[in-house]
Amino acid sequence: MWCCASVPAAITCLTRGADLLEQEQVVLCPPDCTQWRVSVFGTGTYASVSNVCGAAIHRGVVGPGGGPVQVRMLLGRRSYMSSYSNGIQSQSLSQWTSSFSLTKPVDTAQELSSETSTTTSLPGGKNVKKVLKKPAAKKPTVKKMANTECQVELAVVMDSSRNIGYRRFGLQKSFLSRLVTALKVGPTGPQVGVVQAGDFPRTEVHLSNSTKTLLMSIAELPYLGGDTNTGKAIQHVAESFFMAEHGMRRGHARVLLVLLDGWPSDDLEKAGELARGLRDQSKPTLEEMPLIHDQDYAMKAVCKANGFFNLFAPSWFSAPKHIRSLTQRMCSPEALQCSRTCLNSVNIGFLIDGSSSVGDVNFRVVINFIKAIAQSLDISDVGSRVGVVQYTYEQRMEFGLSDHLSKEAVVGALNKIRYMNGGTATGEAINYVTNHLFKPSIPGRNFLVIITDGQSYDEIAGPAKNAQKRGITVFSVGVAWAPMQDLKAMASAPTDRHVFFSRDFSGLTAFPEALVRSVCQDFTHTN
To answer: Are residues 518 and 379 in contact, defined by beta-carbon separation less than 8 angstroms?
Structure first.
């Protein structure tokens, strides 16, 4: 028999976190919420505007059949990450005033009585009532809960070079074990993997959500020796560690923690262009200083040399006192967003002319032009995004900015676009894109690339200026009969960087690199 558990409050599939009155309560989600158009914002921690049951399915706390969910209200955040999980696509959100987290409710089995009685016959015919105590109920096993507030994929690069030696290598392992324990890894919390840096990088543990597995693996790590090729290890992590086949989850911040004991043997600056992270480091001695070619190596791989992304410990004995601070830093995705670039932080919408003057063959050339630009971007649910609208007198949303969240998916979707064939109403199409493609809930800098081969039948300057007032930088790409005055009227200033023109469609092949370079200039200037 169960007692002492709060009765779940029945809610609907569309009940939002903001609709709940208690700071923490158990609610009952009905079945078949996947059939409703639920709105979910965030991953792990959800904006309170989200539907609770939709978020619970996304989190894996309940299935499509519904069930009880424990909801805990939290403070608001400056950013909420999108991800796809359990058939639910959550959306990103720049900020919200309050949040909530979800867990499965825990009931405690309690017995109504701890005693019972029986009658025993004694010699002489007397019956004696004997009280028998029931065996005490076993205490439920208390499992260590994952830190659901820390939604990161953490790769740790350990120093296994000859600089550190056997003894300090053992102290480094002890530090890492304590760090893993403090992080509270788990399926609903952070994941951790380990790479050793020596002559060559070596992946020891792929991303894992098991504390036991990680602690056992760390204890068994062999000391490698060799050079301190930390740059190679960073490059190895950036290029091949964070992959789905190695356990990486979509929609989670990727963090690289580099542990250094001494100075590296290779170039960190080049590796730092691929990956930015946190690191612990020891300063060289006065006798070692003349041997170092680049005495600023300590700042080459970090995101910003502002004290947040670099941490100094005089020795491995004192390093554990920094664990709490380190975990807090690594579990703050909004503070870690330092490696934002023009390739991984932009939303590019393409507005493509599908009028009869283009023709099917030239239309495929335009599609290839868009593919070339997309191939240069780092497209993901936490990176850059691409959307496409085709227009004639009407507009057709080919795919939105949240529809395809990988480079391969975008290219596949572009291949499926079919030529419309019709008239040319560019101004109306610009209004459509401004209102339907670019949404405030999608983070990143917005760019619109208009591709046309002729004169529009409607007014274009007003819609283009309105788009720019909404924070959208406009590029115009004209071909053949597109009037230069129209291209300049649509483009953002300075027009010499935002207007491209070719006499024929084959000339589009020369534009992708220059256009992306101009996007980067705009992004850098703004940031």
So the answer is: no
Torsional sign, CA 243, 245, 246, 247? positive
Rounded to whole angstroms, the Cα distance separating 6 from 27 reads 10
> Helices 323-330 and 165-183 sit at what angle, rounded to 10 degrees?
60
Q: Residue 78: how many CA atoms within 13 Å on its side-chain side?
A: 6
Strand partners, 349: 387, 448
Burial (CB count within 10 angstroms: exposed 0-12, middle 13-18, buried 19+), residue 2: exposed
Say if CB 216 and CB 177 are below 8 A apart: no
Q: Sign (positive/negative) of CA torsion 55, 59, 62, 67?
A: negative
> Does 31 sit behind a cis peptide bond, omega within 30 degrees of 0 on the bond before it?
no
Q: What's the rounded Cα separation, in Å, for the pair 378 and 344?
A: 5
Give yes or no for a contact between 263 and 246, defined as CB atoms under 8 angstroms apart.
no
pLDDT in tens, 181-237: 999 888 888 999 999 998 888 999 999 888 888 999 999 899 988 888 888 888 888
Higher pLDDT pick, 404 / 245: 404
Instruction: Say how far apart CA 436 and CA 349 lie, in whole Å.
Output: 11
Hey, what are 414's tokens? 């572009």
d(C-alpha 378, C-alpha 273), whole Å: 14
Structure tokens at 211: 């504390």
CA distance 248 to 517: 30
Q: Which of 467, 461, 448, 454 is nearest to 501 (CA)?
A: 454
Let me know: does 117 contact 131? Beta carbons within 8 Å. yes
Distance from C-alpha of 351 to C-alpha of 398, rounded to nearest angstrom: 10
Sign of the alpha-carbon dihedral angle for 48, 52, 55, 60:
positive
DSSP track, 195-213? EEESSS-EEEEEEE--HHH
Kindly report the length of the chain.
Answer: 527
d(CA 126, CA 149): 66
pLDDT in tens, 410-458: 999 999 999 999 999 999 999 999 999 998 888 889 999 999 998 899 9
- CA–CA separation, 223 vs 196, rounded Å? 9
Provide CB contacts within 8 A for 82, sequence distance 6+. Answer: 41, 42, 43, 89, 90, 91, 92, 251, 381, 382, 402
Helices (H), 144-210: 165-183
Distance in Å from the first CA to the final CA of the chain: 61
Which pLDDT does position 109 carry in this prediction?
37
| Alpha-carbon distances, residue 336 vs 74, 260, 269, 287, 328 (angstroms) | 21, 20, 19, 35, 11
DSSP code at position 91: B
